[in-house]
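hey can u check if this looks right to u? its 171 residues, i copy pasted from the old doc so theres a chance i mangled smth
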Amino acid sequence: MPRSRALIEIARGSSFLFIGGIAFLVDAGLYNLLVYWGGHGPLHDLPLLAKIISIATASAATYVGNKLLTYRDRPTRVSVRQIAIFITINLIAGGLQLACLGFSRYVLHLDDPVADNIFGTFIGQILATAFRYVTYGRFVFPAESAGSTDAPESSEDADGRDEPLTGTAGA
């Protein structure tokens, strides 16, 4: 008996939130270590750089987690195109988080751990997660379309031919 579309989306959403929760912990933990470890972390005076590092680290974890868990039913091979789209989406999502942290730090002049975590991590992560949920399923891990069931996921080279990331082109 096939599962209904609603149940599939609830399961996918739950899995996405689980992976996002792990990424949240990685992001928040690494940011706080870099900025506040021992009262004055190594990047205390560079909070946006610390946030970029924590977001990039958490994003790598989300790719692996979502590929293996959330979108495991979508058999896509890793390709240059897929990685490029993932990076682009995460640059935009990271920009949302950085904008929240920057607003708190440089407009409201709030520079304590509570404000950084509320604006840069909590609010920023909510906005970024909503954006990622919509875009990952559509662009990074797309469902197979009816007309392309025998075509593997790959990247296109300059001639429009599909080339897998592994470089085993030209068969």
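Residues 74 and 107 are 43 Å apart (CA to CA).
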